[in-house]
Amino acid sequence: MSETDFQTFYSEVKHLEREDSVYTSDKQLSRLLRPGSTYANLNPFEVLLCDPEDTLEAIRKQYKKLSILLHPDKNPDDRDRAQTAFDVINKAYKCLESEQSRAKALEVVEEAKFRVDRMIDEKRKKLKREKRDEAVEEDDPIRYKHSVKVMTMKLFADYERKRRSLDERAQEERKRKREEEIEQEEAKQDDKVWSKNFEESRQNRVNSWQSFSKSSKSKRKDIR
């Protein structure tokens, strides 16, 4: 094993040790409810601490492992936060359990890999133009995986912001249409009231004219 291979292996081992060390209720609560976790928790793979390549069975086991730690009944002294975190992992698992939503999540990961690969290519081209060593830090599999992870989280956050923006626009459009409908309904009601008043007024005028005509005829007869 070369020195490079040993360092890579050592990094992987240390990485796995760090992952294993977070499997306590307190650390999982802190991870899922930390400031800024709203966007971080949009990535179901990150929420469940599993890889996109994992099988559904592996994801299910991981979910059960976390659900035991985060179930409110297992955290009686911190029940509210535990319930919130428990809801987060439930939502993530439902996303990955569904074939359709899991496929969409994997598309985000593939897009992240594509962008990271393109970024690496740009780095190499720049180094080549500068006649420098074309090695980049993402050549390390651990660093590459981390870059993909960061890009994936960014994409999930970007897509969520776009979704919310579209929802707000749709809501504003629905509100605008409803206001127009209300204005049209009020205008129709005003027209009905005006027509009714006009008809009543017209009938009053007709009645008054008829009464006046009868009175005039009666007076002329009396004169004769």
Automatic annotation (TrEMBL):
<protein>
    <recommendedName>
        <fullName>J domain-containing protein</fullName>
    </recommendedName>
</protein>
<feature type="region of interest" description="Disordered">
    <location>
        <begin position="166"/>
        <end position="224"/>
    </location>
</feature>
<dbReference type="GO" id="GO:0005634">
    <property type="term" value="C:nucleus"/>
</dbReference>
<dbReference type="InterPro" id="IPR001623">
    <property type="entry name" value="DnaJ_domain"/>
</dbReference>
<feature type="domain" description="J">
    <location>
        <begin position="43"/>
        <end position="120"/>
    </location>
</feature>
<dbReference type="InterPro" id="IPR036869">
    <property type="entry name" value="J_dom_sf"/>
</dbReference>
<feature type="compositionally biased region" description="Basic and acidic residues">
    <location>
        <begin position="166"/>
        <end position="203"/>
    </location>
</feature>
<dbReference type="Pfam" id="PF00226">
    <property type="entry name" value="DnaJ"/>
</dbReference>
<dbReference type="InterPro" id="IPR042858">
    <property type="entry name" value="DNAJC8"/>
</dbReference>
